[in-house]
Amino acid sequence: MPEIPPDPASSRPARKQTYLILALAVLVLDQWTKWWVEANLALHRPHEVIPGFLNLTHVVNRGVAFGLFSGIDSPLRTTVLTVLGLAALGVVAFYYARVDPAQRLLLTALALILGGAVGNLTDRVLAGSVTDFIDAYLGSYHWHTFNVADSAITIGVGLILWDSFRSGSDKEGAAPGNDGDGPSEDAIAS
Question: Do the domain assignments include residue 104?
Fold first, then answer.
């Protein structure tokens, strides 16, 4: 009996779903590093890693990125930040579901953001705060302490920005005359 070749359309979701492995890897690494920091580092005590540049410092962040809203002392703070986090996660998941599988850079970016968002949202739901520990600095200037999830989100946003500034013909899967955001007019006509 002759073998029937697989339908290319049926392999698309599987290809696209492989990017979720990256999101899962970010989530696992984020949660493991936070667990390790909570178990091994005292609060607010810097441990020098690279002199003059990098410390590991256990910090509890009750706000959002860069400590925003951490000074608000309302019982609704965690609830509001959790709802906003879920809404942002929903927007990213919605966008991810609609991206063409050929858009590898964009899928990578969205997977990094998904993994990071779920990591920080997990902390917020379970503990009401997020554990941060990467303390980058130069001289006396310290960047806000952050974690693996924050790094993944930042890299993901950077990749989205980079992707948005590339011309359509530079994007993966873009045919001549196509902006890279979907099938070309030639592909639609055939």
Answer: yes
Q: With contact defined as beta carbons under 8 Å apart, do 180 and 174 qualify?
A: yes
- Which parts of the chain register pLDDT below 70? 1-14, 63-75, 77, 167-190
- List the domain range (segments joined by +) for residue 133: 16-168
Active site residue 7: no
The single residue of 150, 163, 170, 179 carrying the catalytic annotation is 150
The dihedrals phi and psi of 59, each to the nearest 5 degrees, come to: -130, 140
Structural domain total, the chain: 1
pTM above 0.70, yes or no: yes
**Residue 7 belongs to a domain:** no
Give the active site residue among 123, 132, 135, 163.
132
C-alpha 138: how far from its chain's center? 25
What pLDDT does residue 37 have? 98
Residue 52 located in a structural domain: yes
Whether residue 100 lies in the annotated active site? no
